[in-house]
């Protein structure tokens, strides 16, 4: 028998000729990527409609006037400090997640557990901060379908026609609670998934399986949540 | 969920994130956020940078942060180019929607209050 490879076999050795994953990733991980892509479209449509409504408004509540409290410490005079803390917490929990993935590559079960617990704590802290932020705005009178009275609103705008303040404040409130709410819902589900995966790690599921690939998959989701927050932060609090 | 132990060796690209690299990327993300705060809290209120210049700067800085998260934390930089393109190219549709709606909102402003 000849050892020479026939031409048809050579064709079959290319990445796209079938028989193996051309992307060189496991099925579940690829599907996580495609799910995140679809989720990116959902968040984009929400943020783009926010952008379009804001861009077509002659005035808008000024972020450093609306968000200037640190719940429990200061009622005003500290613009963006609290949301800065929230951003820091979420980025930090993203870092602990990568460290969990890195520990998983080394099959270091104990380290994976500790970094996952750190990530979960970060997630819960962020959610707690968001709850405080929401209740603060709610106390000021903002909610879906509700805005503070006209006198209050004057302090939140920096110019524009006063007669339009009500309309734009209402749009701001609806968009703010919908978009940060949808993001918070993602953070919440991320924390729940992280808890389930951590329990699996403790039970030794992935050790038996021979790889901590599942940590990478939940890690992708968790980083995506952080990624979305980066955009929410810019468009609601900075611009 | 079925286990796929045969797939495991595919994941070893040999270019994983080392701890040093993770800390570096964290530093970059933190640094960019601090710069954004300096612009929002110091430079704009003092009138050093007008807000119509600050806004595009925020967007560029945000995209830089997004790049670091996706490329390093989500590891996309180290995946096959095919997978990276499958994720990045559809984002062009989002950019298209942004362009269409920002253009359109110029007209809406005359129609609204």
Strand content of chain A: under 5%
Low-confidence stretches of chain A: none
- The number of helical elements of chain B comes to 4
Terminal-residue CA separation of chain A = 72 Å
Put simply, the count of helices of chain A is 9
Report the end-to-end length of chain B measured between terminal Cα atoms.
55 Å
Largest sheet of chain B: none
What is the gyration radius of chain B calculated from CA atoms? 20 Å
> What do we call the CATH topology of chain A?
Four Helix Bundle (Hemerythrin (Met), subunit A)
Name the quaternary structure: heterodimer
Q: How is the main sheet of chain A built? A: none
- What's the shape of chain B? flat
CATH 2nd-level architecture of chain A: Up-down Bundle
* Helix and strand composition category of chain A: mainly alpha
Report what the structure shows.
The complex is a heterodimer of chains A (239) and B (113). Chain A is an all-alpha fold. Chain A has a single domain, classed as Four Helix Bundle (Hemerythrin (Met), subunit A) (Up-down Bundle). Chain A has nine helices and no strands. Chain A is elongated. Chain A starts with 6 loop residues before the first helix and ends with a helix. With 113 residues, chain B is mainly α. Chain B has two domains: 15-78; 80-113. In chain B, 68% of the residues lie in helices and 0% in strands. In chain B, helix 1 (19-43) packs antiparallel against helix 2. The longest helix of chain B is centred in the N-terminal third of the chain and has 25 residues, at 19-43. At the A-B interface, helix 2, helix 4 and helix 9 of A face helix 1, helix 2, helix 3 and helix 4 of B.
Q: Notable features of this structure?
A:
heterodimer, A: 239 residues, mainly alpha, Four Helix Bundle (Hemerythrin (Met), subunit A), 9 helices, 0% strand, B: mainly alpha, 2 domains
